[in-house]
Specification:
The protein is of the alpha/beta class. The chain contains 11 helices and 8 strands. The two termini are 16 Å apart.
Length: 285
Amino acid sequence: MDIGIGLPATIPGVDGRRMLDWARLADQRGFSAVGVLDRVVYGNYEPLIALAGAAAVTEHIRLITTVLLAPLRTNHALFAKSAASLDRLSGGRLVLGLGVGGREDDFTVGGVDHHTRGKAFDALLERATAAWRGELGVGPEPLTPGGPPILLGGQSPAALRRMAQYGIGWVSPGGGLDMFRRGAAGAREAWSAAGREGAPRLASIAYYALGPNARAAADRYLRHYYGFLGAIADYVVAGALVSAEQVVTAVGEFAAAGCDELVLLPCDPDLGQVDLLAGVALTGG
């Protein structure tokens, strides 16, 4: 199983230099990918811009959106152009994790109808993939034939339909091992039903913090980021991996469940978190 690491792009107060140093160090330590989340009504960096910065200071590591709120990208041609540009700039290292989005305030502030976001998502997938095939006259041509590989998020029938039609696989949110298992089973079934060859690539995110202040850092960040969920935020907070033992156990369990890539998103922006995670996740502790 590949082990990726998130950029601290959604942790309040992180400056640009820290983001670039983090990406550079993650590349040097051998992580498979750097991942980013997406929000509008929050103080996070825009995901594709954050990954463009990471691309400029790295050579090998893949760049994953986990996930991008696709229906908010209403100019489909411009989105396709942006993604193709990043694909070329990074040497073909971009992977687009795409989801429908759940926070209504992100859509309201963007002037996008939250209730029709599924249809908007379908339209974006159709138009963007057509652009990457060269059918709309939109350049540059992606370095990756057919455009950047797509992982689809969500567990609804519509989400799994999109995955089977447009994606190389499926990505689970940070809901733990049981959520991954349920979603992975649905993804495999939808893939087979669509007549796709082989098997879908299965990925997941999880949250981590390590060191003596790990529990406090996870509580502070995750309660702030997921505060809109109310009591459900407690479940997210409790699921954070805050010790070396928990990270090693999670890596083993996700691998055994058939996960192809686990992206561990940080709750603490201290640069030392990269080395701490590499020391346990990439070596088994």
